[in-house]
Amino acid sequence: MATTLDVLLKEQRVFNPPKGLVEKSNIKQWMDKHGIGSYEELLEKSQDLDWYWDEVAKELEWFRPWSKVLEWAPPYAKWFVGGKFNITYNAVDRHMKTKNKDKIAYIWEGEPGDVRNITYAQLYEEVNRLANALKSLGVKRGDRVGIYLPMIPELPIAMLACAKMGAVHSVVFSGFSVKGLQDRINDAGAKILITCDETYRRGGIVPIKKNADEALENAPTVEKMIVVRRTGGNVAMKPGRDIWWGEITKTQPTEAKTEELDPEDLIYILYTSGTTGKPKGILHVHGGYAVATYWTLKTVFDLKDDDVWWCAADIGWVTGHSYIVYAPLMLGVTSVMYEGAPAFPEPDRWWEIIEKYNVSVFYTSPTSIRAHMRMGDEWPKKRNMSTLRLLGSVGEPINPEAWVWYYKNIGAERCPIMDTWWQTETGSFCISPLPITPLKPGSATKPLPGYSADVFDDRGNSLTNAGGSVVLLSPWPAMLRGIYKDPERYQNTYWGKYPAIYLTGDMGRKDEDGYFWVQGRADDILKVAGHRIGNSEIESALVSHAKVAEAAVIGKPHEVKGESIVAFVVTKQGIAADEALKKELKEHVSREIGKIARPDEILFVPDVPKTRSGKIMRRIIKAVAIGEVPGDISTLANPEAVEEIKRAK
Ligand code: WTA
């Protein structure tokens, strides 16, 4: 029998947020203070960027206030010009003056079940010890520090210590393997690499340091490696280069200097996949990034003093940078941090964590929701999750089935779902509901206050109820400040199509109520289980194998992961294209990039469709592979290759 919920969905009705939530929400209180009466009025008034962001930025502590909110010389923006600021001061230091000092910043749970509660005061001391240790190794303001750590407390500590002293961190997701790590630390020119012995994953051991050692064989800028002991496993330490974290921090003072930085000083480089094989080093800065991440978390997820926040992402991606590390700490809330695999040892591990620590606001991805959906309703039913009051989703469009499952089984039809649209480049949520926003399942709703977005056709006309390019119309404080060492790519990728307007790379539709329905990437970037991977990154890894001549990678729709990776491979002359080679190639990609990039399927073909200039036509390959009509193939240099794709096994 259809429940009211299913009927509501079918009729495409709007979910009005519960009154109690609206009345007590942080955003409503802020609106009352500013005499703003409605959501619509808030969106309109906040388009005065100078006024809006000036008001918001006052919530943080500045060593010196700014003289100008925004200087916009497209494609470069400067925010809070003339101010002096440090994000770590706001995330950690300032809590030493308040009752937050003894509050728990992180409830950390390791995969084997070990627990560490870390108070703000302890965090402060650990950050200071490491900052002093880094200084003793010669790290200075502006130097890059590579961080290759799994989800253990030393990861946020390392990031905060770098930011405190004005060094620039570059965190590499611990699921990347040797080559992925090597490329990133070399591009960043990291002076130090912070890593650990090993980590636990699904009951097994992941050899983190071993990967790091191999990566450093060809990473000439790295002088020292700091190693955290996580499992206590036996690892080789290279004399003169490797230092144990415990040893180097032990003797350091628990006070350290916090640099008074320009708000535009870099806080970090985070690499993300683009349309070429080379990842882009996305640049973020202290001031504007802090203001926007702090404020969006406070207003979208409505965090209050007694909330327990759990963002179940990995800090190796932007979601974790912004909403596990910096924003929750600036808000002084308690966060849960979990090291291991989601459904280990049993499918209810996550729900057990929610029950155990009284999590009140929970944020995850549609892929995880779909995976849990498959494991069955009985698992969340085992656990008491009545402390939850708000839920969130990020990383991909959330399909209505997953939305309803999440709403019913996790939120008990009580918790609105905040579907937040944003990117590594945007730093903070951009298109997202607030607790006062009427929801339409599957839509990230409207641009947040202080943001503006639209859907454009190729000529830059605004579209309603038709698919087009999602764009952001005005600058926002957490926007990327560039691509590391590549200003040209920054201009071309994001600002080349429509002057002074940010091209997101996503396709989507805006409905008659101004709600956004993001459909997915317009370019050659895959979203596999929420991870962003460039088709060409995987192709480069494949062709680096001695037996491969050419490769074309496409994403095929997948029920759980959103997309699965399918590779069409042309082998070199005389090579046996057999099952053994398929296996070998999958392993090769895992080793080169990481398991997240491992192809689900490999198909051998004698040739791949190409234009006369030699560009592989992934669009055509994809259409054929998923059984669609490929469109005009007459411009191909080798139209017969299309037939080969159909026949490929
Ligand atoms: C996609 C993740 C639909 C989108 C924070 C974007 C989404 C890319 C949503 C960025 C959402 C993110 N609805 N699609 N709520 N959130 N995306 O850089 O395609 O890993 O461009 O940042 O994820 O991925 P990234």
Over the alpha carbons, how many angstroms does the gyration radius reach? Answer: 24 Å
| Number of H/I helices | 22
Ligand set: 5'-O-[(S)-ethoxy(hydroxy)phosphoryl]adenosine
| Shape assignment | globular
Mean pLDDT: 95
CATH topology of the domain at 529-648: GMP Synthetase, Chain A, domain 3
Q: Characterize the biggest β-sheet.
A: 7 strands, mixed
What structural category characterises the helix and strand content? alpha/beta
CATH A-level architecture of the domain at 529-648: 2-Layer Sandwich
Total strands: the figure is 27
Sheet with the most strands: spatial strand order: 4-3-15-14-16-17-18
Proportion of residues in extended strands: 15-25%
DSSP helix fraction: 25-40%
CATH class of the domain at 529-648, anyone?
Alpha Beta
C-alpha end-to-end distance: 42 Å
Question: Any idea what the CATH superfamily of the domain at 529-648 is called?
Answer: ANL, C-terminal domain
Plain-language structure description:
The chain has 649 residues and is of the alpha/beta class. The protein has a domain of 120 residues: ANL, C-terminal domain (GMP Synthetase, Chain A, domain 3, 2-Layer Sandwich), CATH 3.30.300. Helices cover 32% and strands 22% of the residues. The protein is built from 22 helices and 27 strands. The strands form 8 sheets. Strands 4-3-15-14-16-17-18 form a 7-stranded mixed beta sheet, with helices on both faces. The chain has a 5-stranded parallel beta sheet with strand order 6-5-7-10-11, with helices on both faces. The chain has a 4-stranded antiparallel beta sheet with strand order 19-20-21-22. Helix 7 packs across helix 8, helix 9 crosses helix 10 and helix 12 packs across helix 13. The chain is globular. The mean pLDDT is 95. The protein binds 5'-O-[(S)-ethoxy(hydroxy)phosphoryl]adenosine. The site of 5'-O-[(S)-ethoxy(hydroxy)phosphoryl]adenosine (WTA) has 23 residues, from helix 13, strand 18, strand 21 and strand 22. 5'-O-[(S)-ethoxy(hydroxy)phosphoryl]adenosine (WTA) binds next to helix 13, strand 18, strand 21 and strand 22.
